[in-house]
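Late entry, 4-fluoro-L-phenylalanine complex.
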Amino acid sequence: MAKTDRPNFGSKLGIILASAGSAVGLGNIWRFPYETGNHGGAAFILIYLGCVILLGLPIMISEFLIGRRSQTNTGGAYSVLAPGTQWKWVGRIGVLAGFLILSYYSVVAGWTLEYLLQAVTNSFAGKSTNDFIASFQSFSGNPWRPLVWLVIFLLATHFIIVKGVEKGIEKSSKMMMPALFILILILVAYSVVLPGAEKGIEFLLKPDFSKVNGEVFLGAMGQAFFSLSLGMGSLCTYASYFGKNMNLTKTAFSVCIIDTMIAILAGFIIFPAAFSVGIQPDAGPSLIFITLPNVFQQAFSGMPALAFVFSVMFYVLLAVAAITSTISMHEVVTAYLHEQFNMTRKRAANFVTGCCIFLGIFCSLSLGATKEYTLFGMSTFDLFDFVSTKIMLPLGGLLVSIFTGWALDKKIVKGEITNYGTLKGSIYPYLIFLLKYIAPVAISFIFINELGFLK
Ligand code: PFF
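Prediction complete; structure with ligand written out below:
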């Protein structure tokens, strides 16, 4: 495709909402609360905020400028900016990470549809805690049901991708993101006034540093990369569709603020509600599928209509957040195949959807029917999560920061930050400092520490 024929987003608002749509997802509403719960609450959140500001923001700006300057997908961008070098592998690792994350993420995204159906058909009503545990185990262990939802979810993502950048990604984000903001605010308002909610609020706001160790840092860093969609080129690919007049720094700030706000607001939905009915916050990945429906029933026990509305809204929220993220992962791989291998967009998308359904089946079954088969002590699902989130994304982030901080011509970096002289770009010296020194040292340190070399 000739460069001038590349699709573009149609408006600035569309760009911000699509990028925020990529960032805001199950990472905020499913992963952030359980990681916070497992790592002791407020102290984890503070370290997380440090990771967002010192690592996430500069790396997001880097991904934006690499994408917009190269005008191509992440898998090809590094060959455009640093031809004939090995930097091309950064983009390719990103594409692979995209495949892996999309495959296991869609499994959980599929669960949100099952729970939405259960909420709509009022199946939570009258169930006890043990019923919820049993029903989640029987659902996730069922060989077929989760697979059907997985396929439905990936086909919905596929449908939007095939429609293209402006008519598919941008239009759907513009409809779904405002709905998501409204839903989340309503749910927070419900949750924080529940009796006993204060304990949950305290858990989110009062740090206990005695629980902080290397694992907490790795967890917070991995979560920051995952939540901000960094390290695998989603935002790099989106930025290749940005207009020349888009202020990259401002866009990155907006996306980081929206994403962080939503993660913390999700905490304000989940923890006050959980503490209000005396449920511990460290239930892990099943938190929002076992604990929450139970919480909804107990918290609104005398008010079945409210329990019904709250549950339906929550799972709608989750499904909407998930699909705006899966389209951004799908786009990374689809754009790569389309542009690098001369496939039509439709064929590329067919291929990606087909492969992800295939891999997703293994991830899904590994939580039920094939549970006893593990690799390095992990199920396929956990292995995909560990390798992609805790290794590939931070590694991608590390390489992006070294690339922009050290290898890329500074005229390009400054030019993209200032839109070639039209913006002030006063962030530039700080950005370079963070990318050159802070991000590489911090990421390497957390990595080395956690992989056991310093123990
Ligand atoms: N940021 C998404 C979330 O928080 O759910 C997940 C994600 C999307 C990760 C896109 C990576 C990515 F490239």
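The chain has 18 helices and no strands. Will revisit in the morning.
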